[in-house]
Structures are given as structure tokens and as C-alpha cells.
Amino acid sequence: MNKRTLIVGNWKMHMNTSQASMLLHRLHERIKIHRNIEVVLAPSMLVLQPLSMQIDRRKFRLAAQNAYHKDEGAFTGEVSFTMLQDLAHYVIIGHSERRLYFHEDLDLVRDKVAAAVRNGIMPILCVGETDHERKAGETRQLLHDQLTTALANLTASDVEEMVIAYEPVWAISTFGGQLAKPSDVAKDMEFIRKQVADLYGKRAASRVRILYGGSVDDQTVRGYLEIEDCDGVLVGGASLNYHKFSGIVDAAYRMRHESGDE
Ligand code: PEP
Fold first, then answer.
1. Buried b (16+ CB within 10 A) or exposed e, 148-159
2. 5-258 belongs to which homologous superfamily?
3. Residue 56 and which of 107, 113, 170, 191 are 20 to 30 A apart at CA?
């Protein structure tokens, strides 16, 4: 199966509506339609609606950065997956900023993944260890726990469709941004695919898309995309810069082209 390379830009809590619209305009100018590359933009919740009117759907899809796991009710200040159905194709769930700053625990992440799937929005589930956990040799156990709980209420075909982003917390720019060695990342991504195989079988494991995230930019992306188990990247800081983000998409395109797989 020839999966499309997936490039996701997480804009986090940056840019008001007009700034976001300007960035999208610049990205439209620079990024071409590529059959084998899927580009996803995750703006703030406020900006999803206006961008959904502006976006060229042949080039981009939209993702939400979060949502609440109940479909409707008296939950002041929250937005449900049900409300996002027409706006977002994907949703980022379990990002380390949400786990650490907003205390989202394993059970809440599991409920959010289930709510996304129930509402037809594809989860981009983020998993990854802190620096402390890595140094204590707990990476594998942590990845196991995060995956086992988050995928608990799904079927194998739900899992096939979803995306898992391996984001070592210490490599994310917010938490230090140390560059992870692709050779180390390769082992952890292989472990993640193996975990999915153990839980849901070989077919789900070969189909689920696994991304790498952690201070990726146009200069470093190639090293990660060369990893056998890597189906794309989740980009934070560099996605706010249209030169860098379109450079990442170009690098992915060149790699597909070089492999005769344009
Ligand atoms: C992220 O927050 O998901 C991320 C990968 O951020 P950055 O690229 O800035 O490290």
C-alpha cells in the first residue's frame, strides 16, 4: 500500500484571523497539489471556520488542535467534536502541551480519541516520553501505556484510519527542542508500530500512519522522512514560517520524486 506522506502544521495559540488568513494565502501560493503528499493545517479553534471558507481543498485539509469528549451539554467554554464535523478532517489529541499544562490524563485522551472517531474526525494521537522518563529508561513502558489506553475503545478498522505522532517531549521546541537522532527515533517508531500490531494485528499496524514531531524544519525533515516507519511529520514552530513549512513540503515531494513515486 502506497501511503501519502502526511505533513501537519500545528499553529498552536498563534495568529488572529487576519494573520492566519495571510499565512494560508502565502502557503497557497507556494505549495502545489501533490498526489502523494497530504498537507494538514491545525489553526486555532477560532480560525477554523474562516479558513475553511478560504482553503483550497485540493492542497490542504484542516485539523483542530483539541475538542471536548462529550458531544453536547452544559460544558461552558468547550467545543465538541460534533460541532467540528464540517470543519475539521483531523484533530490533534494528547499533545504534550495538553497533557502537561492542562493535565490531560490517559483516560481523558482515550475518551477524546473515541469521541473523535464517533464523530468521523480522524485523530492524530500524540505520544512520547519526557526527558526524565527517557533517562530513567521508561520510554517503552510509557509508549506502551499511552497507546494501550488511547486505543482501548477502537476497532482495528478505526485504528487503520488514524494517525499516531511520536513526539518525544524533550524534542519539542516548547520543552527544550533537543534534536532527536533519526537512528534513535527509528527504533521508537518501530516499537510503536509493533505495539499496534500486538493490539490490532498486522493489517492495522501497516496501515496506521506514524508521524515524527519534535523541532522538525526544512533542514532536518529529510533525516526523519527517511526512517522506514515514518509516514510524515508533525511540525510546530516551523509551520508558522511559510518559507520553512513550504520547504518541508518540497523536501517530502523531492523524496517521493527521487524514489520514482511522485
Ligand atoms: C509540536 O508541538 O507538535 C511540535 C512538534 O513542535 P515543534 O516543531 O515546535 O517542536
1. ebbbeebebebb
2. Aldolase class I (3.20.20.70)
3. 113
The Cα–Cα gap between 245 and 238 comes to: 6
Here the cell at position 184 is 534513535
Catalytic residues: 95, 167
Q: Phi and psi at residue 91, in whole multiples of 5°? A: -145, 135
Torsional class of 40: left (φ above 0), alpha (ψ -120 to 50), beta (otherwise): beta
Q: Whose CA is nearest to atom 6 of ligand 1?
A: 236
Three cell numbers written together for 39? 498537507
| Closest approach atom of ligand 1 to CA 238 | 8
Q: What is the DSSP secondary-structure string of 78-110? A: --BHHHHTTT-SEEEES-HHHHHHS---HHHHH
Cell readout for 229 is 516507519
- Cβ 239 vs Cβ 245: under 8 Å: yes
Cell of 239: 509551520
Residue 116, pLDDT > 80, answer yes
Q: How remote is the CA of residue 11 from the centroid of ligand 1, in Å?
A: 9
- Pocket of ligand 1 contains residue 172 by CB under 6 Å: yes
pLDDT of residue 261: 76
**In the numeric block, which cell numbers belong to residue 66?**
483539541
Mean pLDDT across 8-12:
98
Per-residue pLDDT, 262: 63
DSSP 170: G
Ligand 1: atom nearest CA of 126 is 3
Q: Which of 167, 178, 221 to mutate to test the pocket of ligand 1 (most atoms within 8 A of CB)?
A: 167
